[in-house]
Amino acid sequence: MKIRIAGDTNVGKVRENNEDSLIVDIERGLYVVLDGMGGANAGDIASQTARDAILQYVAHRRGQMEPKALLTAAIQSGSAAVFGAAQAVRERHGMGTTCVGMLVDGEKVTVGHVGDSRAYLLREGRLLQLTKDHTIVEELVGRGLLAPEDAERHPYKNVLSRNLGARPEARVDITEVVLEPGDRMMICSDGLYGYAQIDAIQYVLGSGDAPADVARELIELALRGGGGDNVTVIVLETPAQPVSSTVVVRTNGAIAWWQRRARFLQLCKDGGLTRNPIVSGLESSEALELIGLSVCQAIFHDLEKSTGVNVWTFAQNLAAGWFERDGNWEALRSMMDIIANAARTVVDELRVLDSQLGFLLDVAVSRALVVAELALGGLLAERLRAIEADLITLHTANVPRVDLSEPRPRLTPMPRLTPNPRSTPTAEKIAAMPPITAEPEEETRPGAEQTMVEPPMSEPSGFIDRPTIPFLRPEREVSGSHESDEVMLAVDKTITVAIARTAPKAENLRTVLSALQQLAGDVAGNFAAAVIAARDIYGIRTVDDVGIMPLFDALDHSRILVAAAVHQIQVPLPIRARALRALSRAHQRLVSAMTGLVLEACLPTAEKLREAQHVTTELRDQVAEAERRRADLERQIAIQTDQSLPWGSRGNTEW
Amino acid sequence: MDLRATLDPSLARLDETSAQTQISAVLEHLGNFIATGDLGLHRAFLHTFLAMRAAEAQSPAAVLTMLVAIGDTAAQVAQLDGTGTTEGAELTLLLTRVTGSTARVVNDLIAEEHAQRYREWVELKERGGS
User: With a cut of 0.85, is the ipTM above it?
Assistant: First the structure.
């Protein structure tokens, strides 16, 4: 820890000479304030004699003794030197000095003192007095013979009970402090606290100025208070904990960003935001406010709170709204690039003015742009998944049936679930579909919104042979084609009825029902398809109640819905039974695959749990063994000390 | 590797060797991209990476999340290791920007894939309607 330290002394406004002395020895980490006393200029001789002795002692023994013993011995050597000097010259009899010293060793500071010079610690805005004055009055207060409030007015308040020089050996009080970032320590003679209010001292000490300035200001404080005595101050400072970059971004960064919003909007306009198809039909100012200002605000709030939720929401709303309007990706990409370029230019300009803040803001804004891309990625992936589901069904429908005994219909329906790949149908749309007819038509299946697709008779290769769907391995059979058309039609109807009964926001449930529909036709039990469906549904969930429970709730709810819906379709009883069986089988497979995924996700935690259990078992064994040994020892002790036992039964110690 | 479960559940589901292989591949490529600045090579790598992960039944959204999580973690490591140094600060910023470029390219790739599927869907629909 790099420490800054400075000291200063002043004769004051009343005294003619300065009887204080100080040591600032950075090399040895020794800092001392001494306040001499005695007539005929003996005071300054006492403090200087002690100063020289202490300095010499530490210089010779630093590193050979531990700090506590070293400082104690050094101060005692000072006392011996002053005592010796006083004895040598008659006029100097009775001279002495106070002493407060700090020996700094890394983060540890040893404080030793004799007399009424003090040491203070300022930590987190609180000023603590580390030393207790060695005065008659303080001794009386300490023994409970004098009330603290009476001490200040006591006539002997400045009469010392201990000093260096009164006797060859001095009793030194020692205390230790472990420094923390931002700490400030101060040692001083009574010329400071005797003429300056303690609140004012605390204020100056905590001002944040450099130690040399603080020392000078403290002395000026005492001088303004009368300066009736010599004043000596040494101030030590540890570097403050650097303000975290997060805090800087949250405060200065967010403000700096918001202050440049006009520049950001101008850059967006220059980049072509107002000409982007997404805002076509809007006035330039409206477009800038709707898009530019919104994203500027979103970034500001995310900077302010260290989150990404505002930018995420902005990007998702922008993209979802645009896709709902059948907008294309290119326009959205262009819009995001305009925003990103404008943001980077604003940050670059800020970096020129304030490189540190600009850098932090650069990282934060770059992360905000990543969050925006993540939001877009989620939507894009969902669109891709939806259209792939359509394509899979479409291709599957075009594959000639394996079971030739079943009459193959000429026209095959598109799936009901996502008739438009650009948007997911709402429950209202499904509810608005024509009622399900009881009997399938001879050549077409019912459903007004269903798109009829002619099977590609001239194209023998099935979907699984087409390389355009890389998300599935060629050898994997996606969905079986082993159930009869009547059963599959009944399954479709059942799922349609079930979906119509779901709430618009029950996305999990709708996804599960969709998966069941895809899996139901597979009599052979193609588990790979179930795993793929389960992975799609599982997505990027977390393995906790919040992530998993809604999913299993949806699985459970889907079973109930399907069981109810299958009784509402008008088909012959055997077909209904087969449809229910197919859906039930699909449900079991899906739940099983989902459980497998959850178990996989839990595996790392489970392994750690097993390790913890193993360690716990070992610790329990050790505790049990220790308990046994303790009981054994207690029994032996009891035998040895129980006087009522016969001699032969006692321990050997009795002999 | 210590953080892989919190980085992304799709990484947590993988065994240690597979997860390490994936993370190493991404990190090595990020290093190459920083060194060369070759966006074409970056795009080619991500295209291959997406296809490989897709073959393992990882959704594109999960892959994107994983790539961003790896890049973000690398940036945080750079920030911690290089505290107080200009190099550390610059590397942190560079990694954050590279993560942004990665996310941008992945989204473009997903959008292109979607466009291709959509064309196929329209083609099949028209064929079915004719």
Answer: yes
B12 vs chain A: nearest CA distance in angstroms? Answer: 6
What's the average pLDDT block by block, 10 residues per block, for chain B (130 residues)?
Answer: 63 75 85 87 87 77 87 88 81 92 95 90 74
Classified as helix, coil or strand, A652 is helix
- pTM score, two decimals? 0.45
3-class DSSP state of A61: helix
A251 three-state secondary structure? helix
List the one residue out of A69, A82, A81 whose CA is nearest residue A172.
Answer: A69
- Residues 6 or more apart in contact with residue A463 via CB below 8 angstroms: A391, A392, A395, A396, A398, A399, A469, A478
Which residues in chain A are contacts of B127 at CB distance < 8 A? 453-454, 456
- Contacts B19 to A, Cβ<8 Å: none
Measured over all CA atoms, what is the biggest interatomic distance in chain B, rounded to whole angstroms?
Answer: 69
Q: How far is A536 from chain B (nearest CA, A)?
A: 7
The answer to whether the CB of A494 falls within 8 A of the CB of A513 is no
Question: Is the CB of A451 less than 8 angstroms away from the CB of B59?
Answer: no
Residue type, A391: L
CB contact under 8 A, A380 and B58: no
Could you say which of A329, A452, A539 has the minimum Cβ distance to residue B111? A329
Q: At what angle do helices A485-500 and A573-641 cross, to 10 degrees?
A: 60
Are A202 and A122 within 8 A, CB to CB?
yes
Strand order in the sheet with A173-178: A20-25, A30-37, A96-105, A108-114, A173-178
Alpha carbons B37 and A565: distance in angstroms, whole number: 58
Min Cα separation B17/chain A (Å): 13
Task: In whole angstroms, give the CA distance from residue A507 to residue A505.
Answer: 5
pLDDT digits (tens, 9 = 90+) for B82-113: 777 888 888 999 999 999 999 999 999 999 98
Any idea which residue has 């939507």 for tokens?
A: A379
Distances (CA, A) of A121 to A9, A173, A186, A200: 20, 16, 7, 15
- Say yes or no for a CB contact (<8 Å) between A470 and B55: yes
Contact A374 B103 (CB under 8 A): yes
Provide the 3-class DSSP secondary structure of residue A66.
Answer: coil
| Cβ neighbours of A507 (radius 10 Å) | 14
* A537 burial via Cβ count (<10 Å: 0-12, 13-18, 19+): buried
**Cα A91 off chain centre by:** 69
Are A394 and B97 a contacting pair at CB < 8 A? no
Contact (CB, 8 A) for A186 and A101: no
Neighbour tally for A106: CB within 10 Å: 11
Which residue, among B112, B124, B126, would best test binding to A if mutated, counting the most A CBs under 10 Å from its CB? B124
* Chain A residues inside the 8 Å CB shell of B108: 329, 333
Residue that has been written with the tokens 């894939």 in this structure: B113
Q: Measured in whole angstroms, how far is the alpha carbon of residue A573 from the centre of its chain?
A: 60
Nearest alpha carbon to residue B129 among A450, A36, A253, A240: A450
CB contact under 8 Å between A388 and B117, yes or no, is yes
Yes or no: say if A112 and A172 are a contact pair by the CB < 8 Å rule. yes
Inter-chain touch A532–B108, beta carbons under 8 Å = no
User: Cβ distance A39 to A249 under 8 Å?
Assistant: no
- pLDDT, block means (10 residues), chain A with 655 residues: 89 91 93 86 89 94 91 95 89 89 93 95 89 88 81 79 88 94 93 88 84 92 91 91 75 89 95 93 90 93 86 91 91 95 94 88 92 92 86 64 38 34 36 36 36 37 32 38 79 89 82 88 68 78 70 82 84 85 84 78 73 84 86 76 53 39
Contact A471 B55 (CB under 8 A): yes
Residue A18 is which amino acid?
A: N
Q: Nearest C-alpha of chain A: how many angstroms from B55? A: 5
